[in-house]
Design goal:
Layout lengths: L30 H21 L3 H25 L4 H28 L4 H25 L11 E3 L3 H8 L1 H6 L7 H4 L2 H16 L3 E3 L11 H17 L1 H14 L1 H16 L11
Helix pairs in contact: 1-2, 1-3, 2-3, 2-5, 3-4, 3-5, 3-8, 4-8, 5-8, 9-10
Length: 278
């Protein structure tokens, strides 16, 4: 007799078994994560350039990481490819690119001779960046936040903080060689590290330009300004970046004033006009 079991007729009450196939993921969900990984690679490469004392290349790598970090969120919203995985990956990449990498670059550039004190400031700056990112992720889950609050960040965002802390190095690329030592002074770099770390964890309201809206009448002047800025960046990138960072610092009083105006308006709304009696 054969050991094979006879064919059995399928039970009509039993649901049909589905063939297990490959799980398919839309490519639009992968593109933002690719940009985030590109930013992470650029931040890590910046530290490698610093080890080889290629300071301009190191600063440029952080700039590329900031550009890619700006693009990944916008591309995710445009392609509807946002995901929890992408948000977590973006935070980890920001910590490396804008918390660890700039501090390490400055350590090799100016603070190696400062000993333990210089290393302490590097670790402090990275910790401040980590706390800033943790607070930002927590605030995203706050459903009670008013709509107007989305126009502002609490503290300086990570890419902007990385640019500000590298400002002494960026300025050193533009001054005569005899003045570089003043910008490379460990005391100056230490003060900049402490101030920028404090801006990370501060409650200073700063503009979130991604949520800003503009009247149509300003669209053409804005496009002309962007064209001028693009030509400026191509002709002299370090001077253009310095001007952008200085204008960003100059926007702090305006952002505070705008934040207080919105806050006062939300807590003390204007009374509706009474109907005129006949």
């Amino acid at each position: 007799m054969s050991d094979a079991t006879p064919n059995q007729t399928p039970d009509p009450a039993e649901p049909p078994r589905r063939r297990r196939g490959l799980r398919v993921m839309p490519i639009n969900k992968m593109i933002p994560n690719m940009l985030t990984l590109g930013a992470l690679a650029s931040g890590m490469t910046g530290m490698r350039f610093a080890l080889n004392e290629r300071w301009e290349a190191a600063a440029f790598a952080i700039l590329i990481a900031a550009i890619l970090d700006t693009l990944d969120g916008r591309v995710a919203r445009l392609l509807k490819g946002s995901s929890k995985f992408g948000a977590e990956l973006d935070s980890l990449s920001d910590f490396i690119c804008f918390g660890v990498a700039p501090a390490m670059i400055l350590y090799h550039w100016a603070l190696e001779d400062a000993g333990r004190f210089g290393w302490f400031l590097v670790v402090l700056f990275a910790m401040c960046c980590a706390m800033r990112l943790a607070r930002f992720n927590t605030m995203l889950e706050d459903d009670k936040k008013p709509v107007w609050a989305g126009r502002f960040f609490t503290g300086v965002p990570a890419p902007a903080g990385a640019g500000l802390v590298l400002l002494p190095m960026i300025l050193s690329f533009q001054v005569p060689e005899g003045y570089v030592a003043y910008l490379q002074n460990p005391y100056l770099v230490s003060v900049v590290l402490v101030l920028c770390g404090g801006l990370f964890v501060s409650t200073l309201p700063t503009f979130s330009f991604k949520n800003m809206k503009m009247a149509r009448a300003w669209m053409m002047p804005l496009m002309i300004a962007v064209a001028i800025l693009a030509a400026f960046v191509v002709s002299d990138p370090w001077l253009a970046l310095t001007a952008i960072l200085v204008m960003y610092i100059a926007s702090f009083p305006l952002s505070v004033r705008s934040y207080l105006w919105h806050k006062n308006r939300s807590t003390n709304p204007e009374p509706e006009p009474r109907p005129v009696s006949e």
